[in-house]
Design the sequence.
């Protein structure tokens, strides 16, 4: 998937892009931004000012959950041991390309952000986590060769290519013991993570925004976006749109405008999946004006999540698409917690029965019961995300569900799959 | 579900829990098992008269997966 760097987002055309300026080389990057802005933030008071600036800017995490970044910085900075920083650039979400595009087109903004975050919390080491075998580790090493003056020690860490391996406690586990499966909490990584130190784990896009705030100030940052979700955000738009790719948009922009940024629909759409594979389905055209941000909106509590949006043609079957993705997510469980290890395959089997006309009279109630008991009972949020996807599908495609349960065959099954899944050849089976 | 009270709350480590189900036998008021045998906990603060039972369940969990968290 290619990045589209020249397509201005609607409404805020003169203010964007902020991240995807295309300065992939250090000289061009420094020419645009100047030196790493450490001077305004020296000493304890300076560090505190930096953290307060991020708090005031209102930056929220771009890795999916939208957690306030400033609050996390303050917690990590208050720990007793010297903290460490982990930049999460794994982007295991199959429908998302934004972190890859960012690492390619603005690597130095990410590195600036990670160095500044380390400075803010008093860390002297940064672990740059990327999926192995993607070339990003090698490219980052090359960029780091040019950055000998950075006030941190950099470690590029190639991580197994598995969906759950990039969950934050899985990264801690991998860095400590070489096994990229999640850990039970407490402790949470911000309390006790890498080497039992307070560990700041942030998505690479989050760190790039953090750098921009350090360069331009919180008020500049807040000039775009909504009051509670300011700044710009990278979204990956795929499916039945003319120009699929990665776009920088303002939170609060409507779903329809985001689809238009990707060239608009190529055929009549029936729904869109918003927020990636832990996200929610919304019906189209009804939801075309739904404003998307990290704040939940609409009946399904839709958020931008990890920023991936997939447009589903009216002729495709949203339940079949969901079933396929759920099968993938169930297979990607780290198989450590019963409700996830047994629950996700059980729900996947129910969904497969629905779409293949094998449902029995108890299927609907069984699905509802199972969907109700799984979330919140794993060590990580993997099952919660998978369950949210299915629950929103059953609502958004309620009429289709009735048809399927009544035994009608689904024409959507014959359509070409829309939601992308990775080629198993490109993925790892092990956790080490 | 009421969240009031000051008693400790039940919590389980979902990775070490191996669905022995002992906890549901010892504390049926606060622990149900799902269809796969894993505990579904009522996370409300425990009433004083159940705390002793809960401590017993915690001590008897074969994998030490069950614990009591103080209510802050
Ligand atoms: C199963 C699973 C996979 C995840 N994968 C990623 C990922 O690839 N990249 C990422 O940034 N966050 C991922 N996350 C979220 C991280 O756990 C973590 O919340 C995030 O990196 C924090 O960064 P932020 O506050 O900047 O969003 C994942 C979470 C789960 C539950
Ligand atoms: S909830 Fe699922 S993915 Fe997460 S640690 Fe447990 S078994 Fe693994
Ligand atoms: S007794 Fe322990 S191992 Fe058994 S179900 Fe309860 S928590 Fe899990």
Sequence:
């Amino acid at each position: 998937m290619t990045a589209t760097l020249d397509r201005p987002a609607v409404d805020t055309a003169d203010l964007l892009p902020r991240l995807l300026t295309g300065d992939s080389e250090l000289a061009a990057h420094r020419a645009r931004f100047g030196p790493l802005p450490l001077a305004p933030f020296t000493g304890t008071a300076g560090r505190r000012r930096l953290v307060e600036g991020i708090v005031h800017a209102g930056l929220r995490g771009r890795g999916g959950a939208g957690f306030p970044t400033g609050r996390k910085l303050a917690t990590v900075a208050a720990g007793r041991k010297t903290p460490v920083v982990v930049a999460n650039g794994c982007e295991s979400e199959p429908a998302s390309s934004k972190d890859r595009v960012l690492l390619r087109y603005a690597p130095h903004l990410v590195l600036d952000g990670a160095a500044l975050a380390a400075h803010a919390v008093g860390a002297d080491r940064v672990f740059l986590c990327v999926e192995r075998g993607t070339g990003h580790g090698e490219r980052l090493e090359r960029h780091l060769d040019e950055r000998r003056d950075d006030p941190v020690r950099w470690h590029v860490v190639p991580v197994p290519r598995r969906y759950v391996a990039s969950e934050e406690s899985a990264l801690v586990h991998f860095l400590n013991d070489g096994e990229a499966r999640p850990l039970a909490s407490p402790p949470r990584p911000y309390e006790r993570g890498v080497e039992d130190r307070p560990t700041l784990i942030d998505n690479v896009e989050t760190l790039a925004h953090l750098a921009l705030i350090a360069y331009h100030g919180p008020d500049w940052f807040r000039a775009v976006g909504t009051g509670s979700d300011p700044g710009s955000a990278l979204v990956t738009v795929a499916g039945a749109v003319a120009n699929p790719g990665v776009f920088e948009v303002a939170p609060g922009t409507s779903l329809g405008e985001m689809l238009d940024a990707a060239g608009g629909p190529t055929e009549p759409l029936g729904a869109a999946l918003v927020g990636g594979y832990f996200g929610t389905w919304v019906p189209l055209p009804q939801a075309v004006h739904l404003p998307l941000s990290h704040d939940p909106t609409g009946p399904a509590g839709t958020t931008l999540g990890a920023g991936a949006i997939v447009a589903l043609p009216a002729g495709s079957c949203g339940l079949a698409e969901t079933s396929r993705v759920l099968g993938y997510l169930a297979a990607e469980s780290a198989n450590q917690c019963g409700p996830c290890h047994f629950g996700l395959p059980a729900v996947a089997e129910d969904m497969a029965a629905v779409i293949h006309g094998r449902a029995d009279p108890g299927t609907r109630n069984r699905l509802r019961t199972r969907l109700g008991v799984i979330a919140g009972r794993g060590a990580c949020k993997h099952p919660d995300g998978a369950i949210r996807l299915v629950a929103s599908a059953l609502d958004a495609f309620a009429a289709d569900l009735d048809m399927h349960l009544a035994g009608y065959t689904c024409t959507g099954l014959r359509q070409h799959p829309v939601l992308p899944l990775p080629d198993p050849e490109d993925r790892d089976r092990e956790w080490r | 579900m009421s969240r009031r009270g000051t008693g400790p709350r039940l919590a389980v480590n979902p990775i070490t829990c191996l669905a022995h189900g002992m906890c549901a036998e010892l504390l049926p008021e606060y622990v149900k098992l799902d269809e796969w045998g894993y505990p579904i906990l009522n996370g409300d603060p425990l009433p004083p008269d159940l705390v002793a039972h809960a401590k017993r369940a915690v001590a008897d969990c074969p994998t030490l997966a069950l614990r009591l968290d103080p209510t802050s």
